[in-house]
Design goal:
Elements: H1 4-10, H2 18-23, E1 31-35, H3 51-56, H4 58-63, E2 68-71, E3 75-76, E4 88-92, H5 99-112, E5 115-120, H6 130-136, E6 148-149, E7 152-154, E8 157-159, E9 173-176, E10 181-184, H7 199-214, E11 219-222, H8 266-286, E12 292-295, H9 301-306, E13 318-319, H10 323-326, H11 334-347, E14 355-357, H12 366-369, H13 375-384, E15 388-392, H14 412-415, H15 422-425, H16 463-467, H17 473-484, H18 487-491, E16 493-498, E17 503-509, E18 516-521, E19 527-529, E20 541-546, E21 558-560, E22 564-566, E23 571-575
Helix pairs in contact: 7-8, 13-17
Length: about 575
């Protein structure tokens, strides 16, 4: 699809490159930043991060070039799953503060110029939610708000209606004495699934969106959306069992079954389209910048692409791209990197915007997953690909996972396992407190304890120290944000190629603007590359625009396209003359 600028070039007219840049919406080249509120900044000394802590540090987000931050759930919750079990979708949990604190956050964010995105958890509520309590009592208004079944009687004994297994291990069905029936929960037993086949549920959840948009939210990250629907029950109100995964032997483990009836049902995509209509409705009502949807779906790429929308309806602006999280490993070679990146770009519908997610609160940190010597490399990759980026708090300073013993584990996903299995399941290591300085408890709190332990490396890995080190992870991150403001990076075309088994090359070009070439030497070998054999239309002389501490070069040094030497784990950004 031709952009306005490309059309001008085709017609032989002079262009200064402003046309396409002016057409970009705020989110299309944005730098998003996930805050896990419990672990970002504690303002009252109780060892748990809160809204006022976020407000205090909004200037830091501006300092590092963040466009918008999305907050993991801050709503009223018993905290069985640390906020993802919501008891009231339109209240602030006292752990995080008050509604007045939220209003102050929005006011300060607008003043600083950072947008606030909220987590929206549509799949389930808490079992302490008023809706569930009334549903269990067979209240006519709420009777069908959740998925209920009396169970199966086998040899005189009652059993759950299906063999379905929860993400948090064990049966997806829990018996409720008051209702005398089983309720469905794809996650924790205290997280009953809402029934989206009931139109009233859809409407009440759309009202939740409206509430927060009117409070000033710039959009939502939609949690665990593939789980929103299960296959429709048959005429007798029953569902089929799911087939075995013969490679897994633990009958309590989620992967023991092939989940063909409980995730990625076709109605799920339609639900996102329905939510998008609410945002468009509020855009018209409230004016200002477009409100956005970001969807969390670990699903086949062809399914994820449907979340964008189609020729007749709009969907999520950002169906999260988890390719770099899910499939890159320490031993992945350049061909694998190129395959994952081009796979997304080639499948993405025309006119849509790419996004790249490098970390989140559920996955090992980049430095742990890919190696601490690749932290800068991975951030360079994140920020030089086209579209928008998502950074998990702490990745900009190179935080790594913190080992937490079985005795001190609090993540319910791990606590429901055993001492032999918990390390595979626990998400605590990626959720430890943010490291602000080298003072007591890393400057996270003025109190004497934290809800999860602070990393032992906080005296070396922290914001205060890294501000003063030229080649620190933090300052490389800031340089990348500056680089992204270049017209070519914001609007340019992209070519991604494996230049060898160990070297990934990315070319960003845009009309008569400066062209950039990004080189990542992924492995532990010295590599020599000839860029003329890989990319066309490069000037013979290139300039180093960005280097890391793995490079013997300095910014401003020159290189020649026919022979560029890369040190082990070196990642650089080069530019041509305009």
């Amino acid at each position: 699809m031709f952009s306005a600028l490309k059309l001008i070039v085709v017609l032989g007219l002079i262009s200064f490159g402003f046309t396409e840049a002016a057409e970009k919406k705020w989110w299309e080249t944005a730098s998003f930043y996930q805050i896990y509120p419990r672990s970002f900044k504690d303002s009252n000394g109780d060892g748990i991060g809160d809204l006022n802590g976020v407000t205090e540090q909004l200037s830091y987000l501006k300092e590092i070039g963040i466009t918008a931050t999305w907050l993991s759930p801050i709503f009223t919750s018993p905290m069985a799953d640390f906020g993802y079990d919501i008891a009231n979708f339109t209240e602030i949990d006292p752990i995080f503060g008050t509604m007045e604190d939220f209003d102050a956050l929005i006011t300060r964010a607008k003043a600083v110029g950072v947008k606030i995105i909220l987590d929206f958890v549509p799949n389930h509520s808490s079992d302490e939610c008023e809706w569930f309590i009334k549903s269990a009592e067979n209240d006519p208004e709420y009777k069908d708000f959740y998925v209920w079944h009396p169970g199966k009687i086998i040899n005189g004994t009652r059993h759950p209606p299906t063999n379905w297994i929860s993400v948090f291990r064990g049966s997806m069905w829990t018996w409720n004495d008051k209702r005398q029936a089983y309720y469905l929960h794809q996650f924790h037993a205290k997280q009953p699934d809402l029934n989206y086949r009931n139109p009233k549920v859809r409407e009440v959840m759309k009202d939740v969106l409206r509430f927060w948009l009117r409070k000033g939210a710039a959009g939502f990250r939609v949690d665990a959306i593939p789980h929103a629907y299960e296959i429709e029950a048959d005429a007798d109100g029953n569902w089929p069992d799911e087939p075995r995964n013969e490679l897994v032997t633990d009958p309590e483990d989620y992967t023991y079954l092939d989940h063909i009836y409980t995730v990625n049902q076709p109605e799920t995509v339609e639900l996102i389209y329905d939510f998008r209509k609410v945002l468009d409705e509020l855009n018209e009502e409230l004016g200002g910048d477009e409100r956005i949807l970001m969807t969390e779906a670990y699903a086949p790429l062809d399914v994820i692409m449907q979340y964008y929308g189609n020729a007749t309806v709009e969907g999520a602006q950002m169906p999260f791209n988890f390719e770099l999280i899910s499939y890159l490993e320490k031993d992945s070679d350049a061909n694998h990197y190129a395959e994952l990146i081009n796979g997304w770009l080639n499948l993405m519908p025309a006119g849509r915007t790419a996004n790249w997610v490098l970390g989140n609160h559920d996955r090992n940190r980049v430095g742990t997953r890919m190696g601490e010597d690749r932290i800068d490399m991975m951030n360079i990759l994140l920020f030089t690909l086209p579209g928008c980026s998502v950074t998990y708090n702490g990745e900009e300073i190179g935080m790594t996972d913190v080992w937490i013993s079985w005795e001190h584990t609090v993540d319910p996903q791990a606590c429901q396992s055993n001492p032999n299995e918990f390390e595979r399941l626990t998400r605590d290591p990626v959720r430890t407190p943010f490291q602000w300085n080298d003072g007591q408890l890393a400057g996270f709190t003025t109190g004497n304890s934290t809800w999860l332990p602070v990393s032992d490396n906080y005296k070396l890995v922290n914001v205060k120290r890294e501000r003063g080190i030229t080649m620190s992870h933090l300052n490389i991150f800031k340089q990348l944000q500056t680089l992204r403001s270049e017209t070519t990076m914001r609007n340019g075309d992209v070519e991604v190629k494996a230049l060898s088994e160990n070297v990934l090359g990315i070319k960003r070009s845009y009309g008569g603007q400066k062209t950039f070439v990004i080189l990542l030497n992924i492995m532990n070998h010295v590599e020599s590359v000839n860029l003329n054999a890989a990319f066309s239309s490069l000037t013979n002389e290139l300039t180093y625009e960005l280097v890391t501490d793995k490079s013997p070069r300095r910014k401003g040094d020159k290189a020649y396209t026919d022979s560029i030497l890369l040190m082990p784990k070196e990642a650089v950004v080069l530019s041509t003359t305009a």
